[in-house]
Design goal:
Layout (H helix, E strand, L loop, with lengths): L8 H27 L6 E8 L10 E4 L2 E11 L10 E8 L12 E5 L6 E5 L23 H30 L3 H8 L1 H21 L5 H7 L1 H26 L4 H7 L2 H22 L3 H7 L1 H23 L2 H4 L7
Parallel strand pairs: 2-6
Antiparallel strand pairs: 1-4, 2-3, 3-4, 5-6
Amino acid sequence: MKRSTFITWDQLKVGAMILVAMIIAGIAVLRLGQAANLFSSRYSLVTYVPSTAGLRVGGQVTLAGQLAGTVKSIDFLPVDADTMRNLRITVEIARDLQSQVRKDSKARLKTQGLLGDKVFDISPGTPRFAPLRDGETLPLAAALDYEQVLVQASGALDEVVFLTGTLQKVADGVSAGEGTLGQLFTNRSLHDQLNSTLASTNSLMLRLQSPRGTVGRLLDDPSVYQSLNRVLLSADTLVGQLGAGVNSDSGSIGKLLRDDELYTRLLSAVAGVDTIVGTMSRGRGTVNKLFTDEQLYAEILKAVSSLNAVLVDARRDPRRYTKGLIRVF
């Protein structure tokens, strides 16, 4: 059977739809390639890091937050003593952005959001430094490590939990009536005593405010103020007179404070007394023996006792001692 050489309308519609789909797919691929810089010329930079912290091959490379390339490779370095250079990251950046990445640019491993993917972010350089060429090293700057922050937050959360438990124990003790605070909440008698104390205080304040009392007069009676004012004026006058006497050589106070004659006499008297005391303590006379010789003290005490006995006996029988002293001629 001979086929028809004519194209039907249904076939034409299918072909048109396929053509439109291919055009849309091509435009989409072109747009996505432009957005991801897939069709632009690129150059490579290298960065050495101790840890990638979740960065993956094919991850985004941003320049000042804008997409600039991708992570080409992540390679381990030979083991050595430098723990800050464990991995080598090779990134590919669009060549039209090469003038933005200079020798003072810094790389950071950042997180998209709080718990998002890791990205390789580069800070733009300044005109004072030359642009980095293909294969040169891009220094790594310190970045905020969210894992470390979460670890610290976990420790703080543990402390909050412990503090909450302590507060719960305190609240339980207060509810059980332990301590002064617990007694205030649970003991009725303590509440009554406090209420009685407040009532007594209120009564005392009312009495103090009474116009018949001393405190009330001090608060309300102007005559008390006037009397106090007069007393203060008199005291001020007295102080003024004393000050005038101090500044004058004629008054007693002025002489006591300004005339050094009294000081000289007192100093001479003190020196004389000091000399006498020294002589008494160093000499061998009766005074020194009175202070140091116990036998002399005992003899004097015995003599005084005997004399006291004679005087007592003389008072009782005076004729005994006066007999024969009086004669009549």
